[in-house]
Structure to design on (131 residues):
């Protein structure tokens, strides 16, 4: 399966709540994805491959303006709920938006995710050991 097909499949399965974050990381890494940027304002995800190519997919996430100050604690609570399997990816997106997050950058090689608010506030979350 080519990289774009894997990226597209992972994106859709995530949005349907049918795949875990560790599985997404594994599949994307296998096809050369180094990182991806989820832009909650534009409602899209950009995937960056090691060879310099990129691919943008619609997120089809929650809509509306992201208001309020960035709440790193709220982001962290959403991350933990997702890691425990208590919420699906769409619910995770809704929760981090409610916490003032406008997007995040998942660094697969660096094994961390950087969540960002409107004014540059940031919460960095290392990958769980099983991802």
């Amino acid at each position: 399966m080519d990289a774009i097909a894997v990226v597209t499949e992972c994106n859709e399965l995530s949005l349907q709540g049918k795949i875990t974050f560790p599985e997404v990381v594994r599949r994307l890494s296998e096809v050369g994805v180094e990182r991806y940027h989820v832009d909650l304002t534009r409602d899209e995800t950009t995937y960056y491959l090691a060879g310099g190519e990129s691919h943008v997919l619609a997120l089809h996430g929650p809509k509306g303006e992201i208001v309020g100050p960035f709440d790193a604690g709220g982001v962290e609570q959403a991350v933990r709920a997702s890691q425990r399997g208590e919420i699906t990816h769409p619910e995770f997106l809704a929760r981090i938006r409610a916490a003032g997050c406008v997007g995040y950058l998942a660094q697969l090689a660096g094994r961390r995710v950087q969540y960002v608010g409107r004014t540059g506030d940031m919460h960095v979350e290392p990958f769980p050991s099983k991802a």
User: Anything to note?
Assistant: The chain has a mean pLDDT of 91. The longest strand covers residues 33-39. DSSP finds four helices and six strands in the chain.
